[in-house]
Design a protein that fits this description.
The complex is a heterodimer.
Chain A: H1 2-28, H2 40-55, H3 60-72, H4 75-80, H5 82-103, H6 109-112, H7 123-147, H8 157-182, H9 184-194, H10 199-212, H11 226-239, H12 251-267, H13 269-290, H14 298-312, H15 319-332, H16 338-342, H17 346-352, H18 359-370, H19 377-388, H20 395-399, H21 406-420, H22 432-438, H23 442-459, H24 491-495, H25 505-509, H26 513-521, H27 525-529, H28 533-536, H29 542-546, H30 553-573
Chain B: E1 2-6, H1 10-14, H2 16-28, E2 32-35, H3 51-68, E3 71-74, H4 77-92, H5 94-105, E4 117-119, H6 120-128, H7 130-136, E5 140-141, E6 145-149, H8 152-155, H9 158-161, H10 171-176, E7 182-183, H11 202-218, E8 223-226, H12 229-243, H13 257-265, H14 269-272, H15 282-290, E9 292-293, H16 299-307
Parallel strand pairs in B: 1-2, 1-3, 3-4, 6-7, 6-8
Antiparallel strand pairs in B: 5-9
Helix pairs in contact in B: 2-13, 3-4, 6-7, 11-12
Classes of the chains: A mainly alpha, B alpha/beta.
């Protein structure tokens, strides 16, 4: 017991320190530009004001509703996936009930139930039932992680660690119970404490316990005589049953006794009990100490995130609270991967091979970036691309079981990185369309766009830079050869809605559509790639449709755009 | 008849009314749309960056439809064109097909090319037909002028999209005819809304959009009827954004085709979601409804006894 108290104190201390660190991060980090800075004091007071403002207003109703619907029932998971909901519910209720009824019995069970005895039913049975619930939940979770791997569900070592931890806690508890059941020394101490029988009765009782309760006794030969067992049952009825129900009702522990028996035989039964006791206690306490430093911190952060979502409806007006809610959101992530499974962009992950295209992986690294821990430019560049290759479909935010406002986090992080980082080529794609529509970070977007267009200008020759006459180049291997059909009738240029938008189209666009075809015709692909025209093309396909000789102008422009981006990317990396 | 409903990325989050009104209209003609949660982006946004990255998502989506044994029904032009393009490329390029199938195999999918891609207008036009639509009408517009903007990627390139005559499209005309709404001949009908340049070259994008707004208004239209979801967002959201800079200009309100048709079919207005169009005011909605009258008797029927 001495050891236990020291270990418990130590675990609680580490847990407490961890909690303080995590909470201080909530209120102090994530203030990097372009968001305004706010001191920790300002943020704590803003958060308190928000909480009090909610409690003392009509919004308390939403808060209470959230408590039941979001936290206890886990509606968000229920609506999405019944199997996952089952797993979470089994683990959650199994674990919480074990914690209250069993681990914290002196504080909870004993004060609630006057007749509480861990060896009496229903408690004996329930302990096993709750344990089994947790194990079943863990099994489903493991199954889910294994089977959804192909659907781009990523599992980090920490995800497995959490499952193993929970599993070990429960299994070690069951093993401990099993080893106690078969332990003769445990039996003896019970008899000494509660029994007052003569030798014959003692013998009968022992036979009964061997037969019915899984006891391993050196005195009883197997199988015990039925008359003896019958007599033992009577003794059991008068001396034991008031304080100790049948071990068979502790079904999981009873089954575990089969596994523990060889250990008891090898180590001696008391030593085996001690060994399993240490295993169980160390697993529990290590879990407690590990909790604030792991994804299990979601036990605290996810409920807060869900309540904030329900109460605020993702509309947080105070900038200080916005910063804090972002940090809470980041720590509420359980890396469950639901966002990545549903992500509209997840096939781009297959093409670009960038983990950060998957929202679940973005969140993992945003934690580091927001707290300034990730500074490797190569990682940041990948992250920047991952943040940009997003169709803004908002599915991640809709499905997140922890209610994290991922969309807001990602949009903010996107422009934060673009501001500091290197030119992002994906800006020149239709991923930019919903961003232009939403009109967030308008100036930041334009600045980032300027960076990449400047790089583009630097990387290519322009018609005006080249001394006349332009000579035939060596550009070969351009995949779409339809340009060879061009006979410079200029129908494409004449029908182009972009060309007609400018008073001086050559100045604005560098080269006109028919000139680009001509440039390809003389083998100067580079010149074609460098023209502003391809980035001003509205992709309306009028030129291609009207071309009398089936030149696939618009498709060629797409190919030129792809090649140009590859070239500036290669240039940036060299 | 059942289709796998391909909504793309914009419609479920930004234009739900397009999905609900289309579903309601098609339901009215006995066509059900099955929502497929596994569908992801069509790939279109990546086309400027990487052609293969652009094609792969559509190949996957087609493989998912195949697995369900359903054809795909699309609303958005750009999704439509991406899916059609993917089908076209896969039919021609067996090396790329094998490469993509090896990626799909990881999640137990395989593209064979059996699923067809249909635009909802094609389904209304071919499968339902203007005659059936006419029979189901409970109301008809007495005087409503709309400017249809087809959007580019449904019409062109014609060998890929195979939707309608790309120079003289008639599907929208024939579908609008029974409703009594007049589809105006106007300058921007077959042209670009500027969406593809938004966020890349905003000035040019706005210029193209304004050109279309002015063109439709000059033609004396009551409403703009965009077919493509990108066009819709340009007219219904971007128009409001750019109007902030010049508040004196008149907003051109958006009325989607299934909303217009749904009113004539007497469908539940909640499903049509007309008030969710951000450019439409309650006065506009009252005005539209005031233009609804009883469906006209067919002239042919009257003539028939005379001829006999």
């Amino acid at each position: 017991m001495m050891n236990f108290n020291i270990l418990l104190g130590l675990a609680l201390f580490i847990c407490l320190v961890g909690l303080i660190i995590r909470l201080s991060i909530w209120f102090s980090q994530g203030t990097r530009s372009p968001a305004p800075e706010a001191s920790a004091a300002t943020r704590i007071s803003a958060a308190l004001q928000g909480v009090l403002g909610t409690i003392f207003s009509g919004r308390i109703v939403r808060m209470i509703k959230s408590l039941f619907v979001d936290l206890l029932f886990q509606e968000r998971i229920f609506n999405k996936n019944l199997l996952r909901w089952t797993a979470h519910t089994l683990i959650f209720f199994g674990f919480i009930l074990l914690l209250l009824m069993h681990a914290m019995s002196p504080l909870v069970s004993e004060s609630v139930f006057s007749n509480y005895q861990p060896t009496l039913n229903p408690f004996l049975f329930l302990r096993n039932l709750f344990g089994l619930m947790v194990l079943a939940g863990v099994a489903i979770a493991v199954y889910r992680r294994l089977t959804l791997k192909a659907q781009r569900l990523r599992s980090a070592p920490s995800d497995w660690a959490a499952l193993v931890f929970v599993g070990v806690i429960i299994l070690s508890g069951m093993l401990l119970e099993g080893s106690k059941m078969s332990s003769y020394s445990k039996y003896q101490s019970m008899v000494e404490e509660y029994g007052s029988s003569d030798e014959e009765e003692a013998k009968a009782l022992e036979a009964f316990w061997v037969q019915e309760n899984g006891l391993v006794s050196p005195n009883v030969q197997l199988p015990p005589a039925p008359e003896l067992v019958q007599k033992g049952m009577e003794v059991n009825g008068t001396s034991c049953i008031e304080c100790h129900a049948s071990n068979k009702t502790a079904f999981a522990g009873f089954a575990m006794a089969k596994i523990t028996r060889p250990f008891s035989a090898l180590l001696g039964d008391a030593a085996a009990v001690t060994m399993f006791w240490y295993l169980h206690i160390l697993a529990c306490l290590a879990f407690l100490a590990w909790l604030p430093f792991s994804k299990m911190f979601h036990i605290i952060a996810a409920p807060l995130s869900l309540i904030v979502k329900r109460v605020s409806g993702d509309a947080i007006d105070k900038p200080a609270n916005l910063l804090t809610s972002r940090m809470i959101g980041l720590s509420a992530c359980t890396h469950c991967g639901t966002c990545s499974l549903e992500c509209s962009s997840n096939m781009f992950y297959e093409s670009f091979g960038n983990d950060f295209i998957l929202p679940s992986e973005k969140v993992q690294y945003l934690k580091k970036i927001m707290t300034g821990k990730e500074t490797d430019p190569a990682v940041l560049k990948k992250m920047q691309e991952g943040l940009y290759v997003c169709t803004s479909c908002d599915r991640c935010t809709t499905v997140c079981p922890s209610g994290i406002n991922l969309k807001e986090l990602f949009v903010h992080a996107r422009y934060m990185l673009l501001k500091q980082g290197m030119p992002e080529k994906a800006l020149l794609s239709h991923f930019s369309f919903p961003l232009a529509l939403a009109q967030n970070f308008v100036d930041d977007h334009l600045q980032a766009l300027k960076k990449v267009t400047d790089q583009f200008k630097k990387s290519f020759q322009h018609l005006t830079d080249i001394p006349v006459p332009v000579t035939i180049g060596s550009g070969r291997g351009f995949s779409n050869t339809s340009f060879r059909g061009c006979y410079s009738c200029q129908r494409c240029t004449n029908i182009c809605p972009v060309v007609r938008s400018f008073d001086d189209p050559v100045e604005a666009l560098g080269m006109l559509p028919h000139q680009i075809m001509f440039s390809l015709g003389i083998g100067n692909v580079d010149l074609a790639m460098g023209s502003q025209m391809i980035w001003s093309c509205s992709t309306c396909y009028l030129c291609q449709e009207h071309c009398p000789n089936q030149v696939e102008l618009c498709d060629i422009f797409y190919t030129l755009k792809n090649s140009a981006l590859n070239k500036i990317e290669a240039g940036a990396n060299s | 008849m059942k289709y796998a409903f391909f909504q793309g990325c914009n419609i479920p989050i930004r234009i739900q009314q397009y999905a609900t009104s289309t579903t309601a209209v098609l339901q009215h003609f006995g066509i059900t749309l099955e929502v497929v949660p596994e569908f992801n982006c069509c790939g279109y946004p990546a086309r400027n960056v990487d052609e293969k990255a652009y094609l792969l998502p559509s190949v996957r989506n087609l493989a998912i439809a195949e697995k369900r044994g359903l054809d795909i029904l699309v609303i958005c032009n750009c999704c439509f064109a991406s899916l059609q393009k993917a089908k076209n490329v896969m039919a021609k390029d067996s090396v790329l097909l094998a490469e993509m199938n090896s990626i799909l195999a990881k999640e137990d999918l395989k593209y064979c090319g059996t699923a067809e891609v249909k635009h909802y207008l094609t389904v209304l036009h071919e499968q339902v037909g203007a005659e059936t639509i006419k029979k189901k009408l409970v109301k008809m517009f007495t005087d409503l002028k709309v400017s249809v903007i087809h959007g580019c990627h449904i019409l062109r390139p014609r060998e890929i999209t195979r939707f309608d005559n790309s120079f003289m499209p008639r599907i929208t005309e024939e579908l609008l005819l029974p409703t009594g709404a007049k589809s105006l001949d106007w300058r921007g009908k077959l042209e670009c809304c500027g969406a593809a340049l938004a966020g890349i070259n905003n000035d040019l994008s706005h210029k193209l959009l304004k050109e279309k707004i002015n063109g439709a208004q000059d033609a004396g239209t009551d409403f703009i009827t965009p077919i493509c979801s990108y066009c819709h967002l340009q007219f219904d959201t971007m128009q409001i954004n750019i109007q902030k800079d010049s508040p004196e200009t008149k907003l051109l309100p958006v009325l989607l085709f299934p909303q217009l048709l749904g009113l004539c079919l007497g469908l539940d207005e909640a499903a049509l979601g007309i008030e969710q169009n951000s450019t439409i005011s309650p006065e506009h909605i009252d005005h539209i409804k005031s233009l609804l009258g009883p469906p006209k008797e067919e002239k042919k029927k009257k003539k028939a006894p005379v001829a006999a």
